[in-house]
Inverse folding.
C-alpha cells in the first residue's frame, strides 16, 4: 500500500492564479481531510469528507473548495491564490480510527 | 481561537532524560486525544492516543497521562533518545458527535534530545 499520496510536493503560485492539490489514498478509507500547517500554529482543518459525494467545511475553509467523486481521491482547489494561503498542506485519511497523513505539499504564493 | 493549548513551544533534553509536553482543552465534548510526531519534511504520524475513560496509557517509552477534571493531558517520553528529536503535536476530537474524526491540534513542541 502506498498509503496517502499528495502531488505536487512543492509549488509556487502568483497572486490570483488557481491550482488543484491532489490527494489519493489506497486504504479504502471513508474519511478524508485537508489541513494546513503554518509555523507556530499547528494544523488547522480546511475541509473534510465522510464519503464519496459528501464534503463539509472545517475550521478554515475560506478560499478553498473540494470535491469527492471517488473513495480514493480528494482534491483541494484554490481558485484565486492569495499570499495568506502560503502554507504546507496535508491530506489525511481514516476509517473510524486514527488519521494517516500524506507527505504534504509546500505552497508559496507570491 | 486555539481549542487545544500546548506547552512548551520548545524543549531541550539530555539523552536518557524524561521529556514532558503538556496540553489543555476546554471543550468537554472531546473524547479522543492523540499525540502525533512529525519529522522535518514529513507528515505527522500517530504516536499514541487515549480516550477519557482511562487516566494513563503506556506504549514502550511513551506514556499519556490524562486528567479529565483538569481538562489536561500530557506526553511523557522516558529515556529520551536523539532519534526522538522531532515536533510533537497533541490533538483532540469528538468522533462520536461528527462521525468524522476532525482533529483540533495544539501548536506543537519542538523537542531536541542532546547526545
Amino acid at each position: 500500500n502506498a498509503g496517502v499520496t499528495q502531488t505536487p510536493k512543492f509549488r509556487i503560485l502568483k497572486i490570483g492564479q488557481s491550482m488543484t492539490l491532489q490527494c489519493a489514498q489506497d486504504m479504502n478509507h471513508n474519511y478524508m481531510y485537508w489541513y494546513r500547517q503554518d509555523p507556530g500554529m499547528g494544523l488547522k482543518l480546511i475541509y473534510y469528507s465522510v464519503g464519496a459525494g459528501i464534503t463539509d467545511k472545517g475550521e478554515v475553509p475560506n478560499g478553498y473548495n473540494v470535491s469527492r467523486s471517488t473513495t480514493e481521491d480528494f482534491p483541494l482547489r484554490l481558485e484565486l491564490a492569495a499570499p495568506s494561503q502560503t502554507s504546507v498542506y496535508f491530506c489525511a485519511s481514516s476509517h473510524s480510527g486514527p488519521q494517516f497523513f500524506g507527505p504534504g505539499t509546500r505552497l508559496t504564493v507570491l | 481561537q486555539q481549542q487545544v493549548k500546548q506547552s512548551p513551544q520548545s524543549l531541550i533534553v539530555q539523552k536518557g532524560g524524561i521529556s514532558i509536553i503538556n496540553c489543555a482543552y476546554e471543550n468537554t465534548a472531546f473524547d479522543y486525544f492523540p499525540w502525533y510526531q512529525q519529522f522535518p519534511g514529513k507528515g505527522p504520524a500517530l504516536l499514541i492516543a487515549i480516550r477519557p475513560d482511562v487516566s494513563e496509557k503506556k506504549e514502550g517509552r511513551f506514556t499519556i497521562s490524562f486528567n479529565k477534571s483538569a481538562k489536561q493531558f500530557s506526553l511523557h517520553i522516558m529515556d529520551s533518545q536523539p532519534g526522538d528529536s522531532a515536533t510533537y503535536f497533541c490533538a483532540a476530537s469528538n468522533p462520536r458527535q461528527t462521525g468524522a474524526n476532525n482533529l483540533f491540534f495544539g501548536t506543537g513542541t519542538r523537542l531536541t534530545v542532546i547526545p
